[in-house]
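call fold(seq) -> C-alpha cells
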Amino acid sequence: MQKQLFPDIPKKKNDNTKMIGANLSLVFNRRNKHMITLKNRDIIVKKVDISDKPAKKIFVVDAVELGANKSLLAGALNISRQTIHNYIESKKKFGTEGLLGGYNPKMGKNLEQHRKSTQHKRIQGTKAVILAKERKAKRLENQKKQQELDFEFGEQLVSKDEQPFKSLHDWKFTRFAGIFPYLIVLISTNQWLKLIMGYFGSAYKIFLVFLLMVANNIKSIEQLKNINQKEAGLILGLNKLPPKRDVWQWFYAACNLRFSTSLCKLFFKQQLLGGLVSTCIWFADGHLLPYTGRRKIHLAFNTQRKMMMPGQTNIVTCDESGRIVDFQIQEGKGDLKTHIVELKKKWAKELTEPPIMVFDREGYGAPFFNSLIEDKIPFVTWEKHVDSKKLKELDDDCFNESFEMNNKKYRIFEGEKTFTLEENGKTKTFELRKIYLWNQTSNRRTCCLAWDDGRPITTLQCAQAILNRWGASENTFKHLHDRHPFHYHPGFKTLDSDKQLIANPAIKSIEKEIKTVRKKLDKKHKKNSRTKEVLNKDGSRRENSLKACLESGISQLEAELTKLLNEKKQLPEKVDVSTLEDYNYRAKPPATLGRMEKAMLSIY
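ret:
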C-alpha cells in the first residue's frame, strides 16, 4: 500500500477557538470572556471587547462580510441568527450610523427623522470643543502634579552670611553655565532651596555640589579636584567652591542629621502621585555593595566574582523605563521576597492596583508564589530547574507566536504548571501560567512563570516583561551603573589598618615546587612498577638497567621532597606587609636572593 507523501497531522483540540467558516476562527480569551480575536488562517484580523455593544455590532457585520457562516457565528457568540440578520439589514438601510443608533425601520429611511427621535440620547454641544476642554483640564492637572513636590518643609534657619547668591556682580565667564536652567526650575517651581535649607540648615551646600556633579557627569567627590573651583562656586551661588576636604565636611554634616530615610520615602511618594514613574510593571532585584572596612558585617554573594564577601545588598525596584521607584539597602544578602511583599503594603494608598512584579530566580518557590497569590500580587519570573532535554524534544510547531526583541528572534507558546504545597497539615495545589520561550538566535529554550490575578495579560506581554529585564543582560542595573557607580562609597575614610599581616608568599612559592616534585615522583613510581628487572648471565643485577636508574631517581626526588617540606615548616605562616614598604629589592642581584626575598618580589 502506498503511503501518503504528506500525512495529515492531527491538531490539538482547543475549546477556546470556534471555527466560523471561510477559514475564519474566533479565539476567546480564557481569562477575560469578553475579549475575542478574529483570525483568518491564524493571522489576527481584529480584536474586540464584546461587552461594548456598538463594537460588538460592527464586529458581527465585519465577520459576515469576510465570509463567516451566520449559523456558526451565532452559535459561537451565543446570539440568534435573526439578530445577525437585523444587524446586516440595519447597516444596509441606514449605514453604520443606523446600526449604532438603533434606528427603527418602521419610521422609513429618512435619516433626519431618526436623528431627531434619538437626539436626546446624544451628547449636546460641539464634541470637539468638549473633548478639547477635557484634554486641557487633564493636561493641566498632570502638569500641576508633576511640578509640585509636596514635601513637608523643615524648620531649620540659615544665617544671612551662609545664604546662596548673597553677593551681586556683573556678567562673568563660567564654563558651568549649563547648570543654571536646573537651578531656575528647582528654585522657582519646586522650592528646592527652601526644602534642603529647612531640613539641613547650613549643610544644604553639599546638595548644590551634588547638582554640579549630576549636570557635569562627575561621579565622585574626589573628581572635584579637576574642576575650576571659582567658576563652579560662582554658578552655585557660593562665590568659590572650597577644597575637597571642606566638601567632605559638608557631606558628613548632612549625613549626621539622618534625614535620608524620611526624605526618600516622601520623594518616592510624590513620584507615584505625580505620574513620574510607571505603575504597570515593576522590576525588583538586588545588587551587592562590597565592604572592605574593618568592621565585621554579614556576607553576601558576589555574582561577578562567584564568592561570598562582606557587604550590603541594594534592592532596587524600577519601572520598565529604568526609573527608580523605590530602593532599600539591607545587610548581607538581603531579603528580596519580603521586599516584594512589603512594596504593596508600603504604597497601597498611592496605587489603584498593585503592579506586575518581575523578579529573578532568587524568588522561585511554591511558598513564596502562594503568598503572592494570597496577597493579590501579580508576577512574572523565570522557572527554575528547567529540563533542557524535554524542551529540545518539543515540536517546533508548538511555538505558535513569534516576535523580535533586543535584536533577537523569539517564538513562544503557553501552558500551565501545577504546584503542590503542604500548609497546616493539608495539601494545597495551585496553577501558574507557563510560557515556553525559544530564542531562535542562540537556539536555546527556557520557560517563565506568571500569575496575572485575572488581568488581560497576553502570553506575549508576559514574555516581553521577563525579557525586558533579563533578555540581553541585566539592563536596568547596567544603565543605572552608567549614572551611579555602585562600588563607589562616599563617606568612608581611608586609614592604615593595624592588621598588616598577610599570608606568607614564600609558602605559596615552595608549595608549587613541592607539587612539581610529587608529580615527577608519581610518574617514576608508576614507570618503575611496570619495568622488569634485568639480570646479568651470572644472575646478578645489571647496574645500568632502566629499573636501577628509576630507583636512583626516586631516591633523589624523595630526598629533595623531604628538604622542601622541612623548609616549609620553618617558614612563618604570615608576614607583616608594613615591613615591605621600604624594601629595596633592586640593591641585590637576583642570583644572591633567597627564597623568601624572591617570593616577596612576586608581590610587586
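The first strand starts at residue 17 and ends at 21.
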